[in-house]
Specification:
Distance between the termini: 129 Å
Radius of gyration: 48 Å
Structural class: mainly alpha
Order of helices and strands: HEEHH
Strand content: under 5%
Helix content: 25-40%
Strand order of the largest sheet: 1-2
Oligomer: single chain
Number of helices: 3
């Protein structure tokens, strides 16, 4: 006997006796129970407000819910802008200091505003004021200005 593929084999005859009969379906009893009355006194679900973390915004289908009041939101934005401004100012100061230091290194004739010398006339005026204060005797109880 050689091998025959399934599609070329002769079909088997299936007898009804080979399969058992199904059990009859049980009869459904009618109940007098009113199921609607069970849910009549059910508690209605309360809509609770979700507590949001400080500074968060909740986007819903109905709109935006903000955890901050408009005044708090405005104050928060102002603080944020101040912090950004301070950071930028500090970066700018560092950059200017570096530029000034580099210019001092490579330019021998550069005088920064801190290093400017005063004119001779201003120095003379200060010396005269010093002389006047030396001659004048101060009181013990008079505050130094």
């Amino acid at each position: 006997m050689s091998y025959r593929p399934p599609q070329k084999r002769a079909p088997k005859v299936i007898l009804k006796d080979e399969f058992p009969a199904l059990a009859p379906a049980p009869a459904i009893k009618e109940t007098n129970m009113n199921f609607a009355s069970l849910f009549k006194h059910a508690l209605k679900k309360k809509k609770r407000v979700k507590k949001l973390k400080w500074g968060t915004v909740l986007l819903t289908k109905k709109g935006m819910i903000d955890s901050l009041t408009p005044e708090e939101r405005l104050e928060e934005e102002e603080n944020k802008n101040k912090v950004i401004q301070e950071e930028r100012m500090s970066k700018m100061c560092c950059r200017l200091d570096k530029q000034r230091d580099l210019r001092r290194e490579f330019d021998p004739h550069y005088e920064s505003p801190v290093e400017w010398s005063e004119s001779e006339s201003e120095e003379e005026v200060e010396e005269e004021e010093d002389v006047l204060t030396d001659d004048f005797e101060e009181d013990e109880f008079e505050p130094d200005i």
